[in-house]
Specification:
It contains 8 helices and 10 strands. By secondary structure, it is of the alpha/beta class. The N and C termini lie far apart (64 Å).
């Protein structure tokens, strides 16, 4: 508020949005130009650009299905996470499209840390052997690392005994052993779109204009953390 009143800032970019995000209401009430990297509650009118998280996890599931996986789990964020909800939706859509069953115990809801990945794997391995996932789609690379590290500590081979897909294409993901298959978010493209929208807001200040809602498709980056499931190879 102080920055906008002082005239030192013309507009804002906010990120990490969630349900009921108070920052959006604050900026709208004061008619401060802003663009959000991320969505919020349905029906709220403001300019936003977001990664299509559902598309990303749907690509991950489709790829695992193409490799022969039929028992695919999801390690996600807690139910209060809007981005996590979108990514979970893509996972469930992918299973439905492939005609695969969805066991509630294949879905783990946790937080953005390695411990959540470890806890997710523990949940999966507690299942009867014929219900244990052969692959895991995770909500982030950090959660994927938690799954990976715990699996390796138990003697499981990543890409053979268990396939893992992350989300974010973090710089470190390509240097893991094996390198992590993940979903890349086109950050440069998103930044260019946000700047374009802000420029339009400032040029048309006070004039009627339609709100911009733009979903940007992420891309599956295939590396070595996924392979044909052992069950498929034994047929």
């Amino acid at each position: 508020d102080e920055l906008s009143r002082s005239g030192r800032v013309d507009a804002f970019v906010i990120s990490g949005t969630n349900w009921g995000d108070k920052r959006i209401g604050f900026l709208q009430e004061r008619a401060i130009p802003f663009v959000s990297f991320g969505r919020a509650d349905p029906g709220w009118d403001f300019d936003w650009v977001d990664v299509d998280g559902a598309s990303g996890t749907r690509q991950a599931v489709d790829y695992l299905v193409s490799l022969g996986h039929r028992r695919i789990a999801f390690a996600g964020w807690d139910e209060g996470s809007l981005a996590g909800t979108h990514r979970l939706a893509g996972y469930t859509e992918g299973l439905a499209a492939a005609g695969l069953p969805l066991l509630p115990q294949w879905i783990f809801r946790g937080y953005q840390n390695e411990l959540s990945g470890s806890a997710a794997l523990k949940q999966y391995l507690s299942l009867p052997e014929d219900e244990r996932p052969t692959a895991v789609v995770t909500v982030s690379d950090l959660v994927a690392i938690g799954v990976k590290n715990s699996a390796e500590q138990l003697g499981l081979e990543i890409g053979s005994d268990l396939s893992i897909i992350g989300f974010d294409d973090s710089p470190f993901s390509q240097y893991l052993n094996p390198p992590l298959t993940t979903i890349n978010q086109p950050v440069k493209q998103i930044a260019q779109i946000i700047i374009r929208i802000l420029e339009e807001q400032l040029i048309k200040s006070g004039q009627p204009r339609d709100f911009v809602h733009e979903l940007v498709a992420p891309k599956l980056i295939i590396r070595s953390s996924c392979g044909t499931p052992l069950t498929q190879r034994n047929i």
